[in-house]
Amino acid sequence: MEEYKDVINVKDLCEILNIGKNTAYKLLKNNDIPNRRLGKKYIIPKFGVIEYLKGVQL
């Protein structure tokens, strides 16, 4: 995860979690992963993705 900036986009989120865009947008719209909208784009703090991964049941 160190190769990613502190703020990522949906494409990066898909790569990190190995998920499709539809699933990524669902996670963001449900606020499962902290995010902000900037116009039409989602701004996602990397620490939010890390916290999400800590809480996921495997």
UniProtKB/TrEMBL annotation:
InterPro entries: HTH_17 (IPR041657), SinI_DNA-bd (IPR010093). GO terms for molecular function: DNA binding. Gene3D superfamilies: Homeodomain-like. Pfam families: HTH_17 (PF12728). Residues 9-54 form the Helix-turn-helix domain. It comes from the Bacteria. NCBIfam families: excise (TIGR01764). This is Helix-turn-helix domain-containing protein.
